[in-house]
Structures are given as structure tokens and as C-alpha cells.
Amino acid sequence: MLHYLGPCTGLNICSILVRPLFTAQAFHRTMSATTGTPWADFVSQLAPTKVKIRDPSHVNRLIEGMVQGGAEQLQLVVDFDYTLTRAHQDGKPVDCSWGVMENYKFLPKAYLDETHALRTKYLKIEQDSAMSNEEKTPYMIEWYTHANRLLKEYEINVNMFPKMVADSNVAFRDGTDSMMNLLDDKKVPMLILSAGLGNLVVEVLKYFQLMHNNVKVVSNMFKSDAKGLITDLEGEMIHVFNKNENAIHDSPYFKELQARHNVILLGDSMGDLQMADGVENPSAILKVGFLNAKIEERLPQFMDAFDVVLVDDQTMEVPMAVIKKIPISINPYYLTLGQSYFINQYTKESQWDRPTKPAEKSSQEKVEASHLLVKHKDSRRPSSWREENITRTKEEALEILEGYREEITSGKATFAELASKYSDCSSAKHGGNLGPFGRGQMQKPFEDATFALPVGEMSEPVFTDSGVHIILRTQ
């Protein structure tokens, strides 16, 4: 199956037109100007019980426009708390960025009590479906003004933030890391607009190794003095009903986005709908809403506002699947010529180059596995939560990993114990558990090794661009 697409060239595209149609029935050659792909059906089938679409034909047009525009015209505008991050895990609520601080037991009890009281009072107002955004806004300003004042009043120190994040239960939706890595590889900018505490948002991204070059965070960032004590808010206060691209109009980053007219917007509240305000001359804005709580009460409102509603879906499966269909590069010149590209009818992946073999439908849609990763100096990102600058060689990484494997096979330690202590992946926090994933979500060597493993078996060392892994197939 075909997962990642390379840049196209005029010669390769033109050569397709003078040859007979590829004979493998699973592949369909389609004209780039109009494919007619039922994208809404494709999205719905990813999670039939969780995906809600009010207007399938509109969703078809939006995604089709994004496929035609290619990755060069795409940008993502996303909320952070309870959008990129999970709302709950194993039946328990997950910390938001403010919650990372509010649940840190080493802060003064009086501060924690006051912030908890504020959240209890104002969150009900934010989520009240009977109130308009305009009616809610004064309450949000009141909430954030009070919360910001408490940071200074109780002498909160930014140097504590890394420890706060490490001790929290904040967690990203399953597949968020794969989606953000893919966006980074495709050089698609991701603008994170957060009404949370910006310094902690950045710290969480760094902890999970997701603060990539394509990521820009616009949030409530705080200044601090030489001791690290918070002194004041830097810039304008951002709350849930005023966060949008207008906040970056005067920045160099905004100039980078001006040629990107296709937007995938991800949010979990009605206030998130305006995040794409400020996008210049938008061609297509696909609004995806994560409905995490008060589902029966809020579903009608979400259905009216978002193009795709994901009901209590704690994964990034749907956005990731759409992003994977958007080719890395399509030159608009070739669209005017009606050039052909090929779509895998099983995976919906598109590519310019003629397939070399028939597409195969996987008999195993998803697997579940844990892994232990040891990075080296030639890894794609030679840093981790354990080491900021990794200098070991690939050979040294392999030797270390083989030592861990020996400990596991001899019974001296469990896989989860060693992964928790020594893995250079953020999944170390969960004993190396990656959760369920399907074809195309992981790097190819990792995917092939995992799908080939019997359940309960551990792999030999596996090499990827990330480093050297051992994999334990769990389902």
C-alpha cells in the first residue's frame, strides 16, 4: 500500500497520460480537476458510531478542494486543551494546561482552592448552550483576569513548569504524535490557538517532543523576572471567544500563511469556530468538532456549526486520515492540464506515479503494541524527554537496546518497566504503550515488524528514522 507521496515532476505526470490505464482494479486513475471521491462516506466509515456529518456533499467539496490544492496550500488551525489533548483516559479526566498547574500538589493550597473555584464557576458558563458567545465573553474576561492576577499574587515560578508537566496526567489523543510528525514532514504549518496558559502549552509540547518547526503557539504567555517569578501577561489576553488568526496579523508567521487558503480547523467548543477568522481569501475551511461532554445537550448545536462532529472520540484518526490523502505537492499548472493521478481505493491515498503493484487490502485493520525506543545522533530528532542532546552512535544505541531486550527475556525486568525508565519516546509515560494503530500510521519498518509479530511476542531490534526499537505486540 502507498502511504507517503513525493514531489511530482512534469515528465512523470505527462508520461502517465500516454500509457494504458493501470490494470490493477484496486487502483483508480482519476483526473486531478474532479475526482468525485465520496470523502464524507470515507470519513464516516473510519468510526461509524462517532462520526456525525450534517451535509455530506459540502464535506465532499471541501476535502476535494484540499486534495486538489495539495499540502502547499494547507494549514491547520487547532485548539489545544481537549482538542489535541484527550478529555479523559481510562475513565478519569485528563489535565488541561491550566489543570496541569491547578493539580500540582506543591503549590500553595490557597492558590489551588481559588483556581478550582474559578474553574467550577466559569466553565459552566463557557459550556452553557443557552447563552450566546457575546453573552459569555464578559464572564470569560472576568475569569481570566482573576486567574492571571493569582499567578502573580502567589508568586508562581515558571521554572517549576517542566516538573508540573512531568507529574501531570495530561495526554494527547491517540495518533496526535503521528499526525503532527506527518504535518512536519509535509511542511504544513500548525497554528495552535489556546486560551490556556501558553508557557505550559509549550512545555507540554516539548515534553512529548512535538514542538516541531512547523508549530506556532498563540496563547496567554507570561513574562517572568530573573528568578522565574511570573510578573505580567505578555500581549493581549486570549480567551475562548477571541482567539483567531487576527492575533498574528503583524507577525512574520502570518506572512508564511498567506498563500495557504485551505484550512483544517480542529476545536472542542463553539468558541473555536472563529479560530480561522483572519485567514486571507480562504478557499476551503473544514471544521472538525470534538464533542467531549454533555453530548445529548450540545450535539444539535455542534451539528449546526461544524462540518464533521466527532462524538467522544479520543483519537486523531479522522483528521489524520484526511491529511494523509492530501498530496505533498501539486503544482496548480498541472491541474489546468487535467493531469492524472492514482488513488488507492482501499486506503484512498493519492499519488502521481504509476503504481508498481496491485493495491492489497489488509486483512488486519489495526494492531496494538508497546515499544522501547533508543535514539542516536543520526535520529530524525536526536533529543527526548530523557536527554536534550543525544550524541550516541547508532551502534551504541543498538547495544543498549539489546541489553534491555536481554533483561526482558531473562525475566529481570518487564517490558513496561524498562520502557517507562529508558524509552526515548513520550509513550514511556504509559510503559511504552502506543495504543491501537492501523496501516500507514507508523513508519514502514515499524509497521511491518508490528503486523508480522504474533500477539504477545517481542521483536528483534527494528531500525527507523526515529532510532532503534524493540516492539511488543499486545493485540
Number of helices: 17
Low-confidence stretches: 1-35, 330-337
Tally of distinct domains: 3
Beta strand count: 17
**Major sheet: order of its strands?**
2-11-10-9-3-6-7-8
Biased composition (Basic and acidic residues): 352-369
InterPro entries: HAD-like_sf, HAD_sf, PPIase_dom_sf, PPIase_PpiC, PPIase_PpiC_CS, Pyrimidine_nucleotidase_eu, WW_dom
Domain WW: 324-357
Catalytic activity: a ribonucleoside 5'-phosphate + H2O = a ribonucleoside + phosphate; [protein]-peptidylproline (omega=180) = [protein]-peptidylproline (omega=0)
What is the structure about, briefly put?
The chain has 475 residues and is of the alpha/beta class. The chain folds into three domains: 19-92 and 160-325, Rossmann fold (3-Layer(aba) Sandwich), CATH 3.40.50.1000; 108-155, Pyrimidine 5'-nucleotidase (UMPH-1), N-terminal domain (DNA polymerase, domain 1, Orthogonal Bundle), CATH 1.10.150; 366-473, Chitinase A, domain 3, CATH 3.10.50.
How does this structure look, described?
The protein is α/β, with parallel strands linked by helices. The chain folds into three domains: 19-92 and 160-325, Rossmann fold (3-Layer(aba) Sandwich), CATH 3.40.50; 108-155, Orthogonal Bundle (DNA polymerase, domain 1), CATH 1.10.150; 366-473, Chitinase A, domain 3. The chain has 17 helices and 17 strands. Helix 6 packs antiparallel against helix 7 (133-153), helix 8 (161-167) packs across helix 10 (198-207) and helix 9 runs parallel beside helix 13. It is 36% helix and 19% strand. Strand 16 (462-464) and strand 17 form a beta hairpin. The longest helix is centred in the first third of the chain and has 21 residues, at 133-153. Residues 1-35 and 330-337 have low confidence and may be disordered. It has helices at residues 10-17, 39-46, 56-69, 80-84, 97-102, 109-126, 133-153, 161-167, 176-185, 198-207, 252-257, 295-305, 317-324, 332-336, 394-409, 415-422, 444-452, and strands at residues 27-31, 51-53, 74-78, 88-89, 92-93, 190-197, 215-224, 230-234, 262-267, 284-291, 308-311, 340-344, 350-351, 366-374, 433-438, 462-464, 467-473. It starts with 9 loop residues before the first helix and ends with a strand. The strands form four sheets. Strands 2-11-10-9-3-6-7-8 form an eight-stranded mixed sheet, sandwiched between helices. Strands 15-14-17-16 form a four-stranded antiparallel sheet, with helices on both faces. Strands 1-12-13 form a three-stranded antiparallel sheet, covered by helices on one side.
